[in-house]
Automatic annotation (TrEMBL):
Source organism per UniProt: Hericium alpestre
SUPFAM superfamilies recorded: Glyceraldehyde-3-phosphate dehydrogenase-like, C-terminal domain, NAD(P)-binding Rossmann-fold domains
Domain Gal80p-like C-terminal: 141-301
GO molecular function (one): oxidoreductase activity
UniProt entry tagged with the keyword 4Fe-4S: no
Name the UniProt record assigns to this protein: Uncharacterized protein
Domain Gfo/Idh/MocA-like oxidoreductase N-terminal: 4-133
Length: 379
């Protein structure tokens, strides 16, 4: 089968695409299944630099585009348009590609909100294109092992699920500290941009739970805002003295009923506590406990990024009182996603429809916290 030809929107010399999305494509067996044929960035100069860099890495000419994604979307030498830009730009970048009948990939979140995500999923469905969303938990060896243990009955019928996750203060985004990347401005602090503490860390964590254990039928949520402002830090991670009011909740919790098992899910996410000081090095960033009639699964971490298993693989995993070693795949979770997508209909990968289902969970959590009532998850 001929390699899938990728046109990459937002693949510059730095950022998530250059460090996590493109590098796996150079490794075997992905190097035989994909080839990069075009890039599109914000300016002609950055596009030229990117095309030269990746042309050398992929040992073939890479076409440079800039500005609107219409040009790269209509390039006959592009099969799949991969988008890695800020969330508010997702819709404008994806619509021309979908209209051109190209398969599409985009990082999570799909859209700025549930409605925009639904619109993008419907557009792709009407055009009949394949979609891939960057929810890396679907490829995480840890989450897949948990899913396997539960589905095979290793712990019997699931009775309850508990998830306690934390974003330590040392990760400088949202609160209490926020790092400004060049040209980033206050992007992550404006809730209208759709890149909030709820949509990203809570969303990715919830994706782990839903993928391993199935969706939630209803939620009763609570949120609070303990940090009224964020302190900006510089490249040295030290406060600059500049602050900005925080506009969104920074602590979330909810209880819910798992649709498939009927088990109670109790989940919470916190931020603000430190994780690297001597007095806090043993503070857990993740505790995930699944109790069944015949056993239990316990996942723990004190790693800075422990609450996002698709990023950090430093977890202590217990199955029925025995510790189990789980290691990452050499392709990484992003590479495994590319691998599954290349399998076509046989592949196991999250689509835009899966992104909408996750957004419906987040929307129900947000509405429940605002309205003080239990909300059904409409999926």
């Amino acid at each position: 089968m001929a390699p899938i030809k990728i046109g990459f929107v937002g693949l510059s010399s730095r950022g998530w695409a250059s460090t996590n999305l493109a590098p796996p494509l150079l490794k075997s067996p992905l190097s035989d299944q994909y080839t990069l044929t075009a890039v599109s960035t914000s300016s002609a100069e950055s596009a030229r630099v990117s095309a030269e860099k990746y042309g050398g890495l992929f040992s073939r000419p890479v076409k440079p585009y800039h500005g609107s994604t219409e040009a790269i979307a209509n390039d006959p030498d592009v099969d799949l348009v991969a988008v890695s830009v800020k969330t508010p730009q997702h819709k404008a970048a994806l619509i021309p590609a979908i209209a051109a009948g190209k398969d599409v990939f985009v990082e999570w979140p799909l859209g700025r909100n549930l409605q925009e995500s639904i619109e993008l999923a419907e557009a792709a469905k009407q055009k009949g294109v394949r979609t891939l969303i960057g929810l890396q938990s679907w490829q995480t060896p840890l989450t897949n092992k948990v899913k396997e243990w539960v589905s095979s009955g290793k712990i019997g019928r699931v009775l309850s699920v508990n998830w306690i996750g934390a974003k330590p203060a040392e990760i400088p985004i949202w609160v209490p500290f926020h790092s400004r990347s060049p040209g980033d401005g206050d992007y992550g602090l404006d809730p209208n941009n759709g890149a909030t503490f709820l949509s990203i860390p809570v969303g990715h964590s919830l994706s782990n739970i839903i993928y391993a254990l199935g969706p939630v039928s209803s939620v009763s949520a609570t949120s609070t805002q303990l940090f009224k402002e964020t302190k900006f830090v510089g490249a040295d991670n030290q406060p600059t003295g500049e602050t900005m009011p925080s506009l969104t909740p920074d602590q979330w919790a909810f209880t819910g009923i798992m649709r498939d098992s009927g088990a109670i899910l109790t989940a919470s996410w916190r931020t603000g506590g430190t994780a690297t000081k001597e007095t806090d090095k043993a503070r857990p960033t993740l505790v995930w406990l699944i109790e069944g009639e015949e056993g239990h699964i316990r996942v723990e971490s004190t790693h800075l990024f422990g609450a996002v298993p698709q990023v950090a693989a430093t977890h202590k995993v217990i199955l029925n009182c025995e510790e189990v070693a789980i290691t990452d795949h050499e392709l990484g979770n992003t590479g495994l996603a590319w691998l599954e997508f290349a399998k076509g209909e046989k592949g196991n990968y999250p689509t835009f429809d899966d992104a909408v289902d996750l957004y419906k969970h987040l929307d129900a959590i947000e509405r429940s916290a605002k309205e003080g009532r239990r909300v059904n998850v409409d999926i």
